[in-house]
Amino acid sequence: MNLVLLIVGLALIEYFAFSALAGKARATYGVTAPATTGHPGFERRLRVQQNTLEQLIIFIPSILIFQHYWNANLAAVMGVVFILGRFVYYRGYVEEPGKRSTGFAIGMIAQMILLIGAISGAVMQLFK
Predict the structure, then answer these.
(1) What's the pTM value of the predicted model, to 2 decimals?
(2) What's the pLDDT tens digit per position in 12-55?
(3) Structural domain of residue 89, as residue ranges?
(4) CATH no. for residue 8?
(5) Domain count along the chain
(6) C-alpha–C-alpha distance, residues 109 and 23, integer Å
(7) C-alpha distances out from residue 120 to 32, 59, 65, 107, 126, Å
(8) Cα 59 from Cα 85, distance rounded (Å)
(9) CA 126, CA 69: separation in Å to the nearest integer?
């Protein structure tokens, strides 16, 4: 479980970094709060930050439940894949929004494995 918690912590640090980069872009491109539109460089970073937050809502419970029913090491590996996928997503989206698909797919596959594993583990436990 400690390894999984470390991975969750790393995912949160990544989200924190994306948030800081969105904030820095707000200042760099002169987009004053509460505006959420303006320069495309700011908007791209903000969308990465927001999308990552949306993904964390599924990722965190899924990885914790998955490791409970299956295997903490496999959960941690899927967590690392998710984090790397979000990084690839960030790099692609900031460069050109059309280049975000690979990173999104990497993260989504890891997340779906964790979610399906979490749900199937819980269902199997019901029938024990």
Answers:
(1) 0.96
(2) 999 999 999 999 999 999 999 999 999 999 999 999 999 999 99
(3) 2-126
(4) 1.20.120.550
(5) 1
(6) 29
(7) 46, 16, 10, 20, 10
(8) 12
(9) 12
Residues near 107 by beta carbon (within 8 Å), at least 6 away in sequence: 55, 81, 82, 85, 86, 89
How distant, in Å, are the alpha carbons of 65, 86, 89, 92, 108 from that of 95? 35, 14, 10, 5, 20
Q: Cβ(14)–Cβ(7) under 8 Å?
A: no
Burial 24-51 (b: 16+ CB within 10 A, else e): ebbeeeebeeeeeeeeeebbbbbbbbeb
CA angle in degrees (0–180, nearest 5) for 99-6-52: 30
Q: Could you give the residue ranges of the DSSP H alpha helices within 1-128?
A: 2-28, 40-69, 72-95, 101-126
- Evaluate whether 18 touches 90 at the Cβ level (below 8 Å): yes
For residue 66, give the 3-state DSSP assignment: helix
